[in-house]
Structure formats: C-alpha cells, structure tokens
Amino acid sequence: MKETINVNIASVAFVLDEDAYRLLSCYFDDIRTRLPEGDTETMSDIEARVAEIFRERVTSPMRVISIEVVRATMAQMGSPADFGEPRRPKTDPNTSESANGHPEKGPRRLRRPRSKRSIAGVCGGLAEFFDADPTMIRLLALLLVLFGGLSVWAYIILWIVIPEEPARKFNPFRKKS
Predict the structure, then answer these.
(1) Global pTM value
(2) HEC secondary structure over the chain
(3) For 61-112, what is each residue's pLDDT tens digit?
C-alpha cells in the first residue's frame, strides 16, 4: 500500500503516489535551477504541459498517477539539461558558514570541468581555480606555446595529471536538508 498526495499542477488537481510525487518534484526543482532567476512564466508553461500530458494519460479523475506515468512524461518533456546549465547556487558547496554568518571558503580544487572546455579542459580548470577568464588563460597558453615558453608536452602532462570534475548524479529521491 502506498500513500497518495493531492497536488495542483497548473491549477489542475491530480492524485500522485508518493514516489511519483518525489520524482516529479525533483524534476521541477532541477528545471527551476536551470531557468533564469525570476522566470516564472516558463516554469508555469512547463507545469501546464505536464498537466496536459497527465490528463491525456490518465483519463479517470479517480485514478492515481504512478511513477511510470511520471517517467514517461519526463521522457516526453525532455531532460532538465535541455533547459540549460544550472545557475550557480547562492551557497557554493566549497563554502561553509562560519560562526559570524559569513561564508568561509573551503579548500579550492584544481579540476578539469566537464563543460566549457575547448580541448581537454586544462585552461578552463586553471581559470576556475584562479578565478580568471578562461579565454585569457587560453590565449596566454597559446602565446606561451607559440613563443617557446611552454611546450605542448606540458599541456599534455597537465591533461593527464589534473583530475576531471566528478559527474553530477541526478538522484530524484534525494532528501532535501
């Protein structure tokens, strides 16, 4: 026996089982983090489309929307990554709150990013580490290679030595703290 939850999606009432509700909630939250801040119109349109799909798939108002229906709807709507890159969170995972309430920087890590890379992500990782513009780091590296200050071998060694940024895992059942 599963618990059910009554929800309103785009002003239409639905009954979802608990797992389906958690999955749909995480899906909406992930999309919301990828939209520009304050863009409620796009999120409302997405919710309206999800409500339309639910009405098409579940004809009886007494029938509960299961996790399979939510997964099929998510597949039809597309991955949250289709809505763009996530915005930077207001609190960086590398920061922690100190006793006085001001964020305290944690240890910085030199990693090659999975996105925003030209060749291997070495220059992008260095730019993130030093909080600089990646284009300027790339131009500087190119000039050093062309004029003998840095060899291509140094770039290849950095490519091998600098670890790649870990992949983000989309866990629809994660608990929010």
Answers:
(1) 0.49
(2) CCCEEEEEECCEEEEEEHHHHHHHHHHHHHHHHHCCCCCHHHHHHHHHHHHHHHHHHCCCCCCCECHHHHHHHHHHHCCHHHHCCCCCCCCCCCEEECCCCCEEECCCCCCECCCCCCCCCHHHHHHHHCCCCHHHHHHHHHHHHHCCCCCHHHHHHHHHHCCECCCCCCCCCCCCC
(3) 777 888 898 999 888 888 888 877 887 654 444 444 444 444 455 677 888 8
Rounded Cα distance, 112 and 119, in Å: 11
Reading the block at residue 76, the tokens are 């039809």
Q: What are the residue ranges spanned by the domains of the chain?
A: 4-83, 105-166
